[in-house]
Amino acid sequence: MYEYTFVKIELSKWNGKPKEEHHDIIHKHAKEGWRLVQIFAPAVMGYSTATFYEMIFERKIT
Fold first, then answer.
1. Mind listing the pLDDT tens digit for each residue in 31-45?
2. Are residues 56 and 8 in contact, defined by beta-carbon separation less than 8 angstroms?
3. pLDDT higher for 43 or 61?
4. Which of 27, 32, 38, 55 could be disulfide-bonded to 7 (CB atoms 3.0-4.6 Å)?
5. 3-state DSSP call for residue 2?
6. One-character DSSP codes across 5-59
7. What are phi and psi of 22, to 5 degrees?
């Protein structure tokens, strides 16, 4: 069995860049035993650009 955690990364409304560095988030979670499964951008603004994305991590339940 696996457990999952979701990390929401907000994007700047001015330049569309993430407010947090994704590499840092991946390394932090990897040290805790999480594996990156997917990056998902579900919401769009009026100009068809994402307002945030989610990083989905999983790890085995021990």
1. 999 999 999 887 666
2. no
3. 61
4. 55
5. strand
6. EEEEEEB-TTT--BSS-HHHHHHHHHHTT-EEEEEE---B-TTS-BSEEEEEEEE
7. -65, -30
State the CB neighbour count (10 A cutoff) for residue 59: 15
- In the predicted model, is pLDDT for residue 13 greater than 80? no
Buried b or exposed e, range 30-56, using 16+ CB within 10 angstroms:
eeeebeeeeeeeeeeeeeeeeeebebe
Contact between 36 and 27 under an 8 Å Cβ cutoff? The reply is no
The residue ranking higher by pLDDT, 44 or 12, is: 12
In this prediction the pTM is 0.80
Torsion (CA) 43, 46, 50, 52 in degrees, nearest 10: -60
